Amino acid sequence: MKRFTVAAVVLSLFAAGCDEKLNPVAPTAGQVTLASNLSGASNVPPAGSLEAGSTGTLSVSMVPAANGAYTASFSFQLGGLVKAGLLPAPLDSGSVIVAGYVHQGAAGTVGPPVVQLPISQQAPIVTPTGGVVLTISNVQVSASAATAILSNPSGFYFNLYSALNQNGVVRGQLAKQ
After folding, report:
1. Residue 79: helix, strand or coil by DSSP?
2. Residue 115 burial by Cβ neighbours in a 10 Å radius (0-12, 13-18, 19+)
3. Which of 59, 82, 123, 137 could serve as 95's disulfide partner, Cβ 3.0–4.6 Å?
4. 146: enclosing H helix or E strand
5. Domain assignment present for 72
């Protein structure tokens, strides 16, 4: 009887493991992932002062919504920013990210924003450790912006702006994954 029980448990575990391989979770139909390597040096002009060495990565998941529009989630990891206590008040809390956008424009150029993230001076991202890992979900992307971005991702860039670098603290061109 013990052998039968052991065999049944082993077969159950095997079957459970196989189920994940036979029935993987499918991505949402039409979902597109974009990515970018971010750096302060890629800004136009390059990030200066204490944030000149800022770097990071970005992943954008775009899911179709109604009428050709998309809903996007922006996941990014940043480092090389100012740590808390390095500067006098009111900047003593670390780098303060005050805006984020996807802009139309090739590398080395400055272009108009087409997607705005919900980051502002009233709702900033503060980085007391000199870095941040964050996902911002449910960002609305218009049908016209989504069509343009998805047809030519490298013609668009992601840019975050800080209190110290109002021309941009990190920037990176988008690429389809």
Report:
1. strand
2. buried
3. 82
4. helix 143-151
5. yes
pLDDT digits (tens, 9 = 90+) for 124-136: 999 999 999 999 9
40 contacts 169 by C-beta, under 8 angstroms: yes
pTM over 0.90: no
Q: State the total domains in the chain.
A: 1
Q: The domain that contains 100 carries what CATH number?
A: 2.60.40
Task: For residue 139, tell me if it sits in a domain.
Answer: yes
Residue 107 lies in a domain: yes
Q: Which domain holds residue 50?
A: 28-176
pLDDT tens sequence across 64-80: 999 999 999 999 999 99
Structural domain contains residue 81: yes
- Cα distance between residue 120 and residue 1, in whole Å: 67
Mind spelling out the 3-state secondary structure of 113-131? EEEECCCCCCCCEEECECC
Task: Please check whether residue 117 is in contact with residue 74, taking contact to mean a CB–CB distance below 8 angstroms.
Answer: yes
